[in-house]
């Protein structure tokens, strides 16, 4: 397990969450994922800003109304996906997050929330960018 100056990654991300905040939803290059965990009712909002030329995620922000593991999972995820291609980011598995943070089995759904959030943010970006750039032949 990686440690940050002797602190576990879970506690470190919980105590000093990275990339907390919001991006403007109206920005055509911003994708927003808003997901809830059926198991506990916790909610996570994750936003990505994508470079339309390269499909690379250049900025990430999150807000999580949930438990410590959900906060740590989303904070860790934001560091993971920055600089990633959106297709790569959409393939992230919650088990990668759970493993890095050493989440116990009862907290697996907290990392699932982070996986769902990034998938949903990528989807939102893709549906927005389709609207913004009509393909040739598409009716006006
Ligand atoms: Fe309440 Fe997750 S169950 S914070
Ligand atoms: Fe529900 Fe962590 S997200 S307990």
TrEMBL record:
* Functional pathway: Cofactor biosynthesis; iron-sulfur cluster biosynthesis
Looking up Pfam families in the UniProt record yields:
NifU_N
Provide the coiled-coil residue spans: none
InterPro entries cross-referenced by the UniProt entry:
ISCU, NIF_FeS_clus_asmbl_NifU_N
Q: Care to name a GO molecular-function term for this sequence?
A: 2 iron, 2 sulfur cluster binding
The NIF system FeS cluster assembly NifU N-terminal domain is annotated at 10-131
The UniProt entry lists the main location of this chain as mitochondrion
Localization of this protein: Mitochondrion matrix
BP GO terms, sorted: iron-sulfur cluster assembly
**Gene3D superfamilies in the record:** 3.90.1010.10
Q: Name one GO cellular component term.
A: mitochondrial matrix
Q: Which PANTHER family match?
A: IRON-SULFUR CLUSTER ASSEMBLY ENZYME NIFU HOMOLOG (PTHR10093)
Family affiliation? Belongs to the NifU family.
What does the protein in this record do? Scaffold protein for the de novo synthesis of iron-sulfur (Fe-S) clusters within mitochondria, which is required for maturation of both mitochondrial and cytoplasmic [2Fe-2S] and [4Fe-4S] proteins.
Name recorded for this polypeptide: Iron-sulfur cluster assembly protein
């Amino acid at each position: 397990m990686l440690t940050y100056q002797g602190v576990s990654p879970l506690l470190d991300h919980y105590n000093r969450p990275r990339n907390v905040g919001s991006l403007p939803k109206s920005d055509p290059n911003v994708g927003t994922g808003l997901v809830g965990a059926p198991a506990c009712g916790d909610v996570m909002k994750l936003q990505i800003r994508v470079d339309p030329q390269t499909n690379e995620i250049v900025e990430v922000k999150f807000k999580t109304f949930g438990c410590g593991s959900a906060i740590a999972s989303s904070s860790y995820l934001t560091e993971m996906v920055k600089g990633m291609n959106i297709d790569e980011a959409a393939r992230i598995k919650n088990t990668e997050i759970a493993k890095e943070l050493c989440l116990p089995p009862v907290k697996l759904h907290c990392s699932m929330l982070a996986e769902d959030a990034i998938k949903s943010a990528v989807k939102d970006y893709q549906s927005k960018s389709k609207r913004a750039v009509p393909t040739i032949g598409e009716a006006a």
